[in-house]
Amino acid sequence: MSNSKIWLSSPHMGGGEQKYVQEAFDTNWVAPLGPNVVGFEQDLEKYLGNDVFVGALSSGTAALHIALILLGVKRDDEVICQSMTFSASANPIVYQGAIPVFVDSEKETWNMCPNALEDAIKDRVAKGKTPKAIIAVHLYGMPFKADEIRAVADKYGIPIIEDSAEALGSSYKGQNCGTFGDISILSFNGNKIITTSGGGAIVTKTQAQKDKAVFLSTQARDNAPHYQHSEIGYNYRMSNICAGIGRGQMEVLDKHIDLRRAMHDFYIEVFKNVEGVTVFSEPNTDFYSNHWLSAILIDPKTFKNKTREDLRVALEIDNIESRPLWKPMHLQPVFEGCNYYGGIVSETLFENGLCLPSGSNLSDEDRKIIKMRLNQF
Ligand SMILES: *Cc1c(COP(=O)(O)O)cnc(C)c1O
User: What does pTM read for this prediction?
Assistant: First the structure.
């Protein structure tokens, strides 16, 4: 094969980005604040609706860290986290000196299982440690079961941090992902549905919470002519340059979602007569996924006696990038010894699942090559 590399998900510029970045240069707003930051935050607030407040930060990870601080998570507190996710969902728990408690997924959305969540809370409460927060994730853009997770969280009075890093533009029962948490976060890393080259956002329900997030993210300077500090601060604000890229990306977000969703439809078509392959899809019309990444689940017993690793390696040889699903956190060496609640859903998904090229910038030629290679496998 001599095709050039077909990526899983690569940055896709819309054209308007450079105008905003140029403006920042022209006005010398080359700083971690400025009109693009304000403009990008307003664009996101308008897009998300539901009267939320958005603070643009340096990364989704930083936003999760600030969210935990805002919810008062401290040393030796316990925080529940979806096990099947990217490590960035869980790492900020440890930044705070707190202890992650991992929870399994359910099979329909691959996200946090409401039953396993309740089992976990009951057991932690019985052991005298009521969890301080629940971090639930919309994996690959698929909304988690927001009503059921909310019902469990409210029953025990525990706030939800909604990790919507992969789900900008997804919705559940018509409500946008990024507005379900007591605090929510977004990511604009290079491989996400839109990018600012690197960046994230915190989404809050009140202006006061947003102000506090921005205060903590800009070194926690008290109101004084000199530098005065009564709290530990962080350098987590988004720069005006990155926000300029974000403003340009917001102009093409909906178009990019359509293209990502078309990639999902493409894989439905490719695999429609292939036994042993399920394309990850919305369980019903309550769920609307941006299909940030298209993923498949292989049944090795019926799929040509091959595993997902056989397929991944074959694609790699053909210069086509694919990737196993997120390896659950309770199986990661770094989180060895952490408590885990649930069964083997996330473990099985990891064993048999594969993400396929999903970018909004893939060409017809790319799709032709992908289809041919998948058919020949
Ligand atoms: C990308 C991602 C993050 C972290 O975002 P960054 O902007 O890369 O720090 C957090 N959670 C999930 C689920 C992600 O996919």
Answer: 0.97
